[in-house]
Design a protein that fits this description.
Strand content: 5-15%
Shape: rod-shaped
Distance between the termini: 66 Å
Structural class: alpha+beta
Radius of gyration: 38 Å
Order of helices and strands: HEEH
Helix content: over 70%
Length: 209
Amino acid sequence: MAKLKLSKSSMQQERNQLKLYQRTLPSLDLKRRQLTVELAKARRELQTIQEAVESLEAHIGEQLPMLANTDIEVSDLVKMTDFELEQENVVGVRLPRLKRIHCSVADYSLLAKPAWVDILVARLKDAAEQRTLVLVSTERVRILEIQEKRVTQRVNLFEKILIPTARRNIQRIQIYLGDAERAAVVRSKLAKAKQAKQRRALHQAEETL
């Protein structure tokens, strides 16, 4: 850390820095509060999607109890092959959002498979999309957590370190300059008193001659 210069120019620099910190802090704090709101919102969305996945999987079992029939093979019926993401700007943070998923459906004979298999295919696609949504939403929460932490650290830096340090430096310089000014006044008075004494002594010497 550079040594503080106890001068008027240094004090002006510290005052300029303090003004800059005080102007910057409100916008940082606003962003922190906005990120906190968005993070809470993202966590609620993630929880809602997770609950939707559980509900959908339970609904499939209730709607299609015939899945318990092991004579009908449906394990590889639907597979997710790819998904597309788009970017969303939230409070200056780029977040992923699921655009669509791509699934492949195994060939099956409409005669060999019962009619309810078509319903199962649709439900499995829905489940694949919901599970992908969970992954994307988890990533959104992760990114927002990182950004909120970073901005909070900057807010704390300004509030607890930069602004108090600038204020202490200004006070320290003011005290030093005040002491120096008082010392200069004292020296000046002493010098004047000494000169006056010398003049009086010289005057007295001249009178005795």
